[in-house]
Specification:
Layout: H1 3-40, E1 62-66, H2 68-71, E2 85-89, H3 95-105, E3 113-117, H4 120-123, H5 133-153, E4 157-161, H6 179-198, E5 203-204, H7 206-211, H8 230-245, H9 252-255
Parallel strand pairs: 1-2, 1-3, 3-4, 4-5
Length: 260
């Protein structure tokens, strides 16, 4: 190896280390900022992406509540329920945040109908440490059933949409993921199904609709590892509405669903 070639290789390595260092600094700074903003606004109601979050001015109609999987759901797909469909999903939220948010929101106003989809931001933490699986699954389940009970106490009809499956995993996420997460999703969904059946609560199985006969979101529906695309939301909405129209327990007249 010539001296010149060694210098070139060393220069490339040094440049690589510098780029990696600078990138790591900005990534760390971004997460440090997000961490501290979360301490200032633990329910994230005032974050830049949620400047129109005002449940207090929406006293009727339908509320969509949950995490990013609800936040990305076009409320226009529920136009058959009438004009008052409000999407109050917030990206990245856990079930404990959603529960606390709903407690606050229901102090000022109540909707006629709530759609809930949440849980993945709790369960994905198992990918970092699967020893936490037991407590995380239990907390996730308890928070969701507490949301259901809260709605019942306020005389609000709630439809539980179970936790979506994941898609094809990206390379970098493999370092913070393990198969225990998928098992936790399946287990939590089954517990929620049994609970909803025992309490006569409408429960929509989005998991198997999106995964078909498998355990991953079908490729035609995947946006990224944790999210689905517009076509998936369109098909999911149609299937959900069709199922609700067949369900006599959800107060169709009260929710103003157009039956034609």
């Amino acid at each position: 190896m010539t001296l010149m070639l060694m210098r070139v290789i060393c220069s490339i390595l040094i440049a690589g280390f510098l780029i990696a260092g600078v990138t790591s600094f900005f990534v760390a700074k971004r997460y440090y900022l997000a961490y501290n903003l979360l301490k200032l606004d633990p329910l994230e109601e005032n974050s830049s992406g949620n400047i129109n979050y005002e449940p207090s001015v929406h006293s009727s109609g339908i509320w969509l509540i949950g995490d990013s999987r609800i936040a990305r759901w076009n409320s226009g797909l529920f136009s058959s329920f009438g004009p008052l469909v409000n999407n109050f999903g917030i990206e990245g939220q856990t079930t404990s945040q959603i529960l606390l948010r709903l407690k606050n929101d229901l102090e000022t106003n109540t909707p006629e109908l709530v759609f809930l989809e949440a849980g993945i931001n709790d369960l994905k933490i198992i990918g970092l440490n699967k020893k936490l699986a037991g407590s995380i699954k239990e907390d996730c389940y308890n928070n969701i059933t507490a949301i259901i009970d809260l709605c019942h106490k306020k005389n609000v009809t709630i439809i539980v949409i179970n936790i979506f499956p994941t898609g094809r995993i990206e390379l970098l996420r493999r370092f913070v993921w393990n198969s225990s997460v998928e098992s936790a999703i399946v287990e939590t969904n089954e517990r929620l199904r049994l609970y909803c059946n025992s309490e006569s609560i409408p429960y929509f199985d989005a998991y198997h609709f999106l995964a078909g006969n498998g355990s991953r979101v079908e490729r035609k529906y995947q946006d990224d590892f944790l999210h689905i695309n517009e076509n998936a939301y369109a098909d999911l909405s149609k299937a959900l509405i069709d199922e609700l129209k067949r369900n006599s327990n959800i107060g169709l007249i009260r929710a103003n669903i157009k039956m034609e």
